[in-house]
Design a protein that fits this description.
Layout (H helix, E strand, L loop, with lengths): L1 H16 L2 H17 L9 H26 L1 H7 L3 H5 L5 H34 L14 H14 L7 H15 L4 H28 L3 H18 L3 H6 L5 H11 L9 H5 L7 H27 L6
Helix pairs in contact: 1-6, 2-3, 2-6, 3-6, 3-9, 3-10, 6-9, 6-14, 9-10, 9-14
């Protein structure tokens, strides 16, 4: 465990010695500050658009930091030949994989804390939007549908107590919509869980692909494809004929659904916080894929020749 912690510590120090994080943080701050200084027709709801743009910049910056950092870890060790004395300590290849993953994941978590702290300050400084406003129909449809399905499933068995159920739901919504702290924390936590899956995926790609640039490009395309198209694959598959329908349905159930962790709309429109039990289940779902990708990376790395 000490060996894994030491490797992770080196990765964290390496990230914050580079200028990537600072440049992205400054750019996010400057763009958000410029947009926040603009007042269109004294519209009090302009803060919603400011929050939406700021969160979008945070997601883009975090993905850039996560993928570029994880993609260069093992290839950089091989190119500089530092992997040979590292494995001669002795350090097992599993410890190298886990240490690199933890270092990248924790470093991304620290960056996320900085980003979301800035977002919370800007959001509260500009004032919160009107509670209960309807979100834009084209934004984060997948997360809204997922929450709706979970709430509908949870309501089964309570049909005989509809009146009391609606009263309890209204009381819970009134209690949770008053404070944005829960939404901020849940958005940060689920975002970090999603980055854990992406980090493990990129590490697996780093032992499969030779060049870090090709690995980063493929992972960027894959992550963006899952975020924007993953929720619709099953719907498209139902309209196809066999065997295309079975193939697309299999892909839908095998891929990690990263779009489930995008709850930006709930933060932007001050909606009630998600049940903490659902956040726990989402975390277990993400950790399951993290373990799968780490095991695949280890199995590939242990069979890979290190001679250059």
């Amino acid at each position: 465990m000490n060996t894994v912690a030491a490797i992770a510590g080196v990765v964290i120090k390496e990230l914050y010695r580079r200028k990537d994080f600072y440049v992205l943080l400054v750019l996010t701050g400057v763009i958000t500050a410029l947009l926040g200084s603009i007042n269109f027709f004294n519209d009090s709801n302009i803060v919603r658009y400011l929050k939406e743009i700021c969160l979008l910049l945070i997601w883009i910056s975090s993905l850039v930091i996560c993928i570029t950092t994880a993609a260069r870890q093992i290839p950089a060790e091989r190119e500089s030949r530092t992997i040979f004395p590292l494995l001669a300590k002795p350090v097992t290849r599993w410890q190298v994989v886990v240490g690199k993953f933890l270092g990248c994941w924790i470093a991304c978590g620290i960056a996320l804390v900085m980003f979301y702290l800035f977002f919370a300050i800007v959001s509260e400084a500009r004032g919160r939007s009107v509670a209960g406003a309807k979100p834009h129909p084209k934004s984060s449809v997948a997360s809204t549908q997922a929450v709706a399905k979970i709430e509908a499933a949870a309501s089964v068995g309570h049909d005989k107590h509809d009146h009391h159920g609606h009263d309890d739901h209204d009381e819970d919504a009134a209690a949770t919509s008053g404070s944005p702290l829960a939404n901020y924390f849940q958005a940060l936590w689920l975002h970090w869980m999603m980055l854990g899956v992406v980090t493990a995926m990129v590490l697996f790609g780093s032992v499969v692909f030779t060049a870090p640039s090709s690995n980063a490009t493929i992972c960027f395309i894959g992550v963006l494809g899952i975020l924007y198209l993953g929720a619709h694959l099953h719907k498209v598959a139902l309209r196809l004929t066999e065997p295309s329908q079975s193939i697309l349905s299999t892909i839908y159930f095998l891929i990690p659904h990263l779009e489930w962790y995008d709850i930006r709309d709930r933060v932007i429109y001050d909606q009630p916080a998600i049940a903490w039990g659902l956040c726990g289940l989402a975390s277990l779902y993400a950790l399951q894929y993290v373990l799968v990708f780490l095991v695949l990376a280890w199995l590939t790395f242990r069979r890979k020749a290190l001679s250059v």
